[in-house]
Amino acid sequence: MPAEEVTILRAQKNAAYSERNQLVAALSKLFPSHLLIHPAADVTWEEGWRTIVCIHLPAGQAAWHFHDSERHLLSHLKDKDVPECAGWDGHTTEEKYQRLSQL
Asked: In what order do the strands lie in the sheet with 33-37?
Protein backbone atom coordinates (compact mmCIF):
# COMPACT_ATOMS: atom_id res chain seq x y z
CA MET A 1 0.00 0.00 0.00
CA PRO A 2 1.46 3.40 -0.93
CA ALA A 3 2.56 5.64 1.96
CA GLU A 4 0.15 8.39 0.88
CA GLU A 5 -2.80 5.99 1.11
CA VAL A 6 -1.68 4.83 4.55
CA THR A 7 -1.51 8.46 5.68
CA ILE A 8 -5.04 9.14 4.41
CA LEU A 9 -6.45 6.00 6.05
CA ARG A 10 -4.74 6.83 9.36
CA ALA A 11 -6.20 10.36 9.28
CA GLN A 12 -9.68 8.94 8.62
CA LYS A 13 -9.33 6.48 11.50
CA ASN A 14 -8.16 9.23 13.86
CA ALA A 15 -11.06 11.47 12.81
CA ALA A 16 -13.54 8.67 13.56
CA TYR A 17 -12.01 8.13 17.01
CA SER A 18 -12.15 11.88 17.67
CA GLU A 19 -15.86 12.00 16.81
CA ARG A 20 -16.57 8.96 18.99
CA ASN A 21 -14.58 10.45 21.86
CA GLN A 22 -16.58 13.67 21.80
CA LEU A 23 -19.82 11.69 22.12
CA VAL A 24 -18.42 9.52 24.92
CA ALA A 25 -17.16 12.62 26.75
CA ALA A 26 -20.65 14.15 26.48
CA LEU A 27 -22.20 10.97 27.92
CA SER A 28 -19.71 11.13 30.80
CA LYS A 29 -21.18 14.53 31.71
CA LEU A 30 -24.73 13.15 31.78
CA PHE A 31 -24.18 9.97 33.81
CA PRO A 32 -22.01 9.08 36.81
CA SER A 33 -18.55 8.45 35.37
CA HIS A 34 -14.93 8.07 36.33
CA LEU A 35 -11.53 7.28 34.88
CA LEU A 36 -9.53 4.11 35.16
CA ILE A 37 -5.96 3.51 34.03
CA HIS A 38 -5.31 0.26 32.19
CA PRO A 39 -2.52 -1.70 33.91
CA ALA A 40 0.88 -1.15 32.28
CA ALA A 41 1.63 -4.86 32.70
CA ASP A 42 -0.96 -5.68 30.03
CA VAL A 43 1.07 -5.16 26.87
CA THR A 44 -1.95 -5.65 24.59
CA TRP A 45 -2.62 -1.89 24.90
CA GLU A 46 -0.22 0.72 23.61
CA GLU A 47 1.11 3.25 26.11
CA GLY A 48 -1.02 6.13 24.79
CA TRP A 49 -4.27 4.11 25.07
CA ARG A 50 -4.32 3.29 28.79
CA THR A 51 -6.97 5.82 29.88
CA ILE A 52 -10.44 4.31 30.23
CA VAL A 53 -13.62 6.30 30.79
CA CYS A 54 -16.19 4.27 32.68
CA ILE A 55 -19.80 5.48 32.40
CA HIS A 56 -22.54 4.10 34.63
CA LEU A 57 -25.63 3.96 32.42
CA PRO A 58 -29.03 2.94 33.82
CA ALA A 59 -28.62 -0.44 32.07
CA GLY A 60 -25.07 -0.99 33.36
CA GLN A 61 -21.49 0.07 32.90
CA ALA A 62 -19.97 1.09 29.57
CA ALA A 63 -16.25 1.76 29.14
CA TRP A 64 -14.07 3.10 26.34
CA HIS A 65 -10.31 3.51 25.98
CA PHE A 66 -9.18 7.05 25.19
CA HIS A 67 -5.91 8.07 23.57
CA ASP A 68 -3.85 10.45 25.68
CA SER A 69 -4.08 13.08 22.93
CA GLU A 70 -7.82 13.42 23.66
CA ARG A 71 -7.77 13.05 27.44
CA HIS A 72 -8.50 16.79 27.70
CA LEU A 73 -12.10 15.90 26.76
CA LEU A 74 -12.32 14.12 30.12
CA SER A 75 -10.82 16.88 32.28
CA HIS A 76 -14.10 17.10 34.23
CA LEU A 77 -13.52 13.57 35.60
CA LYS A 78 -11.23 12.29 38.28
CA ASP A 79 -10.01 8.76 38.85
CA LYS A 80 -12.72 6.81 40.65
CA ASP A 81 -15.32 9.62 40.84
CA VAL A 82 -17.81 6.82 41.55
CA PRO A 83 -16.43 5.27 44.77
CA GLU A 84 -18.72 2.24 44.72
CA CYS A 85 -17.21 1.10 41.43
CA ALA A 86 -14.51 -1.53 41.72
CA GLY A 87 -13.44 -1.02 38.10
CA TRP A 88 -14.48 -2.57 34.82
CA ASP A 89 -17.34 -5.05 35.22
CA GLY A 90 -16.11 -7.33 32.44
CA HIS A 91 -18.68 -6.29 29.82
CA THR A 92 -17.98 -7.06 26.18
CA THR A 93 -18.18 -4.53 23.37
CA GLU A 94 -21.50 -6.10 22.31
CA GLU A 95 -22.89 -5.78 25.86
CA LYS A 96 -21.69 -2.18 26.05
CA TYR A 97 -23.61 -1.21 22.93
CA GLN A 98 -26.68 -3.18 24.03
CA ARG A 99 -26.65 -1.15 27.26
CA LEU A 100 -26.20 2.05 25.30
CA SER A 101 -29.12 1.19 23.01
CA GLN A 102 -31.40 0.99 26.06
CA LEU A 103 -31.13 4.73 26.69
From this structure: 33-37, 51-57, 60-66
Q: Are 94 and 62 in contact (CB under 8 A)?
A: no
The predicted model gives 80-92 an average pLDDT of: 70
> What single-letter amino acid sits at 93?
T
**In whole angstroms, what is the distance from residue 20 CA to residue 65 CA?**
11
φ, ψ for residue 12, nearest 5 deg: -65, -40
Per-domain boundaries in the chain: 3-101
Q: Which of 55, 68, 93 is nearest to 17 (CA)?
A: 68
Distance in angstroms (rounded) separating the CA atoms of residues 22 and 30: 13
pTM: 0.84
Residues 6+ apart with CB under 8 A from 61: 54, 55, 85, 88, 89, 91, 99
